[in-house]
Amino acid sequence: MSAGAYPLEGVGFQPRRWIEVINGPWHERALWIYTAVVVSHWLEHLFQAAQIWIFNMPRPESLGALGYLFPWLVKSEVLHFGYALLMLAGLFLLRSGFAGVARGWWTASLAIQVWHFIEHSTLQAQAIVGTNLFDSTVPTSFLQVFFLRPELHLFYNAAVFIPMVVAMWLHTRPGAPSGITCTCAH
User: Fold this and answer.
1) In whole angstroms, how large is the CA radius of gyration of the chain?
2) DSSP string covering 52-89, please?
3) Does the structure show a pLDDT above 80 at 108?
4) What mean pLDDT do residues 25-42 have?
């Protein structure tokens, strides 16, 4: 292994140092891992969309691929809230690895995810308390009053994903702004 291959070796866990490492020498790896999680979530939503619009399954039974294995988990708010939190944390933690226009796009993705997280927090709170907003029979987010849930979440995921991908594309182009210590553009 080359020098610096394990930048945290022998130092114990230091949050500030860890953030420097994932936004420096491990930024490319961290982005690949984060992207794999995001794409996996997208595949779930696209599978659910196919169940609804291609296979004409009733919406309550269209639970995606995970829903076949763990219907109770997909029907709960825990999985959705957990993913929204993971997505928010990733966008926040990886932000300092971006500079220039790419950072602006990444920040836009983060801002949209903040709202998406608020929506999921509202759903999770309703599930925990047992009282739903808007006299609904199920936990309901603010915009879900106007849009069906699968369509709304496809929109949210696209609204977060598109600026995230633009940011990563700009970030990995040769000639990306200096001051970045990662190897993403090489």
Assistant:
1) 19
2) HHTS---GGG--HHHHHH-HHHHHSSHHHHHHHHHHHH
3) yes
4) 94
